Amino acid sequence: MKNNKKKKQSIWIEGTTQTGKTTRLTKLFSLWVNQQFKKQNSEQEKLKPVTPSTLILAGNDENKKLLGAQLSLSVKGSYPVICKTPLGFFSDEVILFFPLISTQLNLKAQFPLRLRPETEQDLATRLWRDQLEEDDIALFGNEYRFVRRTLDLLQLAGASGIPTERISDILEKSKVLTLLQNTTNITHNSLTRKIGKLLIQWRDYCLERGLLSYGLIYELYWQYLLPDPGYQEHLFKRYQAIFADNIDDYPAIAKDLFDVLLDQGVYGVFTYNPDGQIRKGLNADPDYLMMLKERCKIEDLSPKDYLGKALTDIIIPCITENSVISQFPESIKSIQTVSRAELLRQTTDYIIHLVKNEKIDPADIAIIAPGLDEIARYSFLEIFSAHNIPIEPLNEQRPLISSALIRGLLTLLCLIYPHLGRLADRDAVAEMLVILSQKPVNSNDQIRRLQAEIDPVRAGLLAEYCYYLAEQNPHLLPYENYTRWDRLGYHATTAYSDICHKIENLKNLVKQGENASPLVILDQAIEDFFANGNILPFEQLSALRELMETAQHFWEVDLRLRQNGDIVADETATIAQFIYLLRRGTITANPRPMKLFGHKKSNITLANIFQYRSLRSRHKYQFWLDAGSILWTKGGASDLFGAQFFLRNRLGKPLTTNEENEEDQARLQRILRDLLGRVETKVYLCHSDLSVTGTEQNGALLILVHSSLLCFSTTLSQY
Q1: Average pLDDT for 285-296
Q2: Mean pLDDT score, 626-632
Q3: CA 544 remoteness from chain centre
Q4: pLDDT at 591 over 80
Q5: CB neighbours (10 Å) of residue 374?
Q6: What is the per-residue pLDDT for 137?
Q7: Is the per-residue pLDDT at 598 higher than 50?
Q8: Whether residue 162 is found in the same domain as residue 201
Q9: pLDDT tens across 50-108, in order?
Q10: How far apart (Å, rounded) are the C-alpha atoms in residues 138 and 425?
Q11: Phi, psi (5° rounding) for residue 468?
Q12: Residue 123 maps to a domain
């Protein structure tokens, strides 16, 4: 087997934010494709459609779509472009070559089934519940957090290329569990061993049933699939080139894959942003990926002279040295108040002023927060909507059960299937009547609007007097059961009778037993009550789509478990479990409309730091909410528990206090450089002396607020 490891034909493109790395990768892709066509013509072959022979990767789903479109345009559609995320690639490969893995592990031949995180959480909880002690759970806060953090360890180990059997050793060496409250060395050691055993048990449980979690996908790929000679032969036949964008966001095992391909002379182009590393703490290992640089020709894209670079040169020394800036740039302004509520009001008022009076396009404005709480989110959405200024939260993930439409459909299931009466009280039935009686109304704008034929007051009366609450067979009685039914009105009584009739038809389908699975019943209910979704606005369609995908996945897993004899309960119990799962709020959906291809929406962007950086966009105006918060130096939700101990360069090595502080400072500097590289005109520091909890804010960026106020001695509330 020929080894071309020493031949540096691949290219490493390194540069900070907005220096043209992806543009350069796109140009190299176009050149490579043209070379392939020329090679075909020179060999006097007939020009045939080129089969996919490039491995194209992007950091996340959003970047994947943009990169795929950009590459396709660069070659005018003459070459097939299939772009994936690293996890998407590993998942597809494990599923495609699962028979090969099954042979190695001597597993039962069956088609693998991917587990969604909420299903993984539910199954692992049921598997482990009898083994969990109250003291162990108390250390993590509650059972949900114990299970989630334990499963995250499996994902971190898999992404780093660490066998499950070694997780206990890393936990013990790093002393990570001592970070928890009331943890002694004795409890640390016993809990460390228990977590290791639980994860091995969970891995074996999944493999026996052909279930694939994210952590298991990582482990199966690097430990069994990638080293296999047969699989490697397939890889070499399929891929002649690699184009990987933003590899500072890739897991460690991605480098192992690249090494295997580069060793065979595969051409590679990699882009790397030292100020990126957005997913560090979420399975990414940028330092390990950077070792690929030694195998490539290096193209260093120096930053151009632009606003972000000038601001970075001023702000970073101010933060690191904690010194006031005497000559503060005009491109940074501040909004400072005492209370958080006043800050939200002044910030929204000023943005409304920019849009209405200075004619600033909402698409040029981004509101960025270190942690976006529900109060701020709700305030921005309500205030801007009231002024007809569009605003879009990035990747807004609210619990699916927060949608009244979803709650109504779940209550409907309780009335159709027997033995579910305890899950449908009168308030839920009243809400269901309102939801199921919705009809489209004429509107002057293009937004779909619905109006309920049964208003909440009449729905409450009907639920009180016409709902027969029973465990075995709850049902709706005729509206005449309410003695003053004449007060309900024609529209309400007609709609109620129609709902009762349709429910009875659905119950008859269940009694007949033919094609009466909950998926079929839900689909039929959507067709009966909502014209197959055609009358619903976009945000409700999004929630409905997530409900059906969740239901389909849930019953696929249920069927797999029944085939293995793990579940013997009847279907009613399974439906009840599905309803409980949704009501716990662990399943989320984006209630906002999906993006339309080729259509750029003109709206304000609302996001936390991680979401905004992941978008990799730029705006003329950035509003940094809660500039004085300590969360600017913390990883928060973008750091999995114990993630730093699964990086290849420090496996299990404990962090000293100085190292933790240095890591926090390095993260803050990356965040600031990245954000400043994405602003074109002005940055607004929005600070309140008191946080949302009423405590005084004293974060690392407070020195910037003070510098701004000293230099300009005014706030933007006086515009």
Answers
A1: 95
A2: 91
A3: 18
A4: no
A5: 9
A6: 87
A7: no
A8: yes
A9: 455 899 999 998 899 999 999 999 998 888 899 999 999 999 999 999 999 999 999 98
A10: 33
A11: -95, 105
A12: no
Which region holds residue 583: left if phi is over 0, alpha if psi is between -120 and 50, else beta?
alpha
- Residue 270: C-alpha distances to residues 167, 290, 671 (Å): 31, 10, 22
20 and 145 inside one domain? no
d(CA 521, CA 503): 10
Q: DSSP assignment of 148-215, as one string?
A: HHHHHHHHHHHHHT--GGGHHHHHHHHTGGGGSTT--HHHHHHHHHHHHHHHHHHHHHHHHHTEE-HH
Residue ending a domain, choose from 257, 273, 301: 301
CA distance 164 to 222: 12
Range of the domain at 329: 307-396+595-718
* Per-residue confidence band for 599, with pLDDT thresholds at 50, 70 and 90: very low
**Interatomic CA distance for residues 63 and 616, integer angstroms:** 8
Coil, strand or helix at 355: helix
Give the pTM. 0.90
Within 10 angstroms of residue 31's Cβ, the number of other Cβ atoms is 11
Asked whether 417 and 572 are in contact (CB, 8 A), the reply is yes
Question: Does residue 109 sit within a domain?
Answer: no
Of the chain, the percentage scoring pLDDT greater than 90 comes to 61
The span from the CA of 154 to the CA of 160, in Å, is 10
Any long-range contacts for 101-108 (C-beta under 8 Å, 24+ apart)?
Answer: 101/220, 101/224, 101/225, 104/224, 104/228, 105/207, 105/224, 107/207, 107/208, 107/210, 108/208, 108/210
What gap in Å lies between CA 411 and CA 407, rounded to an integer?
Answer: 6
What is the pLDDT, as a whole number, of residue 466?
Answer: 94
Which run of H or of E encompasses 268?
A: strand 267-272
**Strand 679-688 relative to strand 398-399: parallel, antiparallel, unpaired?**
unpaired
**Which range has the worst mean pLDDT, 29-38, 163-172, 247-256?**
29-38
Q: For residue 296, list its beta bridge partners.
A: 10
List CB contacts of 159: < 8 A, sequence separation 6 or more: 215, 218, 251, 252, 253, 283, 284, 285, 646
CATH number at residue 324: 3.40.50.300
Is pLDDT above 70 for 667? yes
Query: What is the dihedral angle through the alpha carbons of 127, 150, 402, 342, rounded to the nearest 10 degrees?
Result: 160
Taking the C-alpha atoms of residue 531 and residue 495, their distance in angstroms, rounded to an integer, is 15
Q: By C-alpha distance, which of 235, 277, 230 is closest to 256?
A: 235
Scanning the structure block, which residue is given the tokens 């984006």? 590
- CA distance linking residue 711 with residue 333, whole number of Å: 10
Number of domains in the chain: 4
Are residues 567 and 448 located together in one domain of the fold? yes
Collect all residues with Cβ–Cβ distance below 8 Å to 532 and sequence separation of at least 6.
Answer: 526
- pLDDT higher than 50, residue 596: no
Structure-token pair, residue 332: 């940074």
Decide: residue 212, CB within 10 A, 0-12 exposed, 13-18 middle, 19+ buried: buried
Tell which wins on pLDDT, 33 or 532. 33
State residue 452 phi and psi, 5-degree precision. Answer: -80, 130
Decide if 532 is inside a domain: yes
C-alpha pair distances (Å), 125 with each of 129, 146, 147, 180: 6, 9, 6, 21
How would DSSP label each residue in 81-102? --EE-HHHHHHHHHHHTHHHHH
Say if 447 falls within a structural domain. Answer: yes
Q: What is the pLDDT of residue 4?
A: 45
What angle do helix axes 571-583 and 538-563 make, rounded to 10 degrees? 130
Backbone angles phi, psi at 201, to 5 degrees: -60, -45
pLDDT at 42 over 80: no
